[in-house]
Design goal:
- The protein contains three helices and six strands; from the N terminus they run ββαααββββ.
- By secondary structure, the chain is mainly alpha-helical.
- The protein has a two-stranded antiparallel sheet with strand order 1-2. The chain has a two-stranded antiparallel sheet with strand order 3-4.
- A hairpin with a 2-residue loop joins strand 1 and strand 2 (7-9).
- The model has no long low-confidence stretch (mean pLDDT 80).
Amino acid sequence: MKVRGARFELQGSRRWLRGCCLEPRSSNLEPEAGLTLVELIICVTIVSILACAALPVARFQVKRQRERELRRDLWEMRDAIDKYKDAADRGGIQIKLDSMGYPPDLQTMVDGVNVKDKKVRFLREIPTDPMTKSTDWGLRSNQDDADSDSWGSQNVFDVYSKSDGTALDGTKYNTW
């Protein structure tokens, strides 16, 4: 290595230059490791934009999952009502004359009824409505009007959600 003024001329290998104590500190041969403040700000901005774009997708997935749970819970309760009605029609359950073979309420299907000297439960528990987060479901009686939203307390012909929310397909939850 020869020194001419403030500049260095490189002779030999870079290994020799790295080991030499005369190596310049601001050499253009090797960039310094690390991020500058501008690079860090750019990275944080890009990550935040991606996170903001993913948030609506996550909300959409949560809503879709709650709708699946609502459909499953409604199907489960309606299936239990149908099984209760079938057992009553076959004469296995003693029923009131005005009930037409439908259960008096949802709790009766959870508590169970005697069918030929055996206690039969049609539901393990009353499911929680995923939209309202309560076990208070809308009930329809066979004697009620088809579009009625009040229950006449005679029997349970159908169940529906009491939520006024709108589903992803544009329908109301309480019409399912």
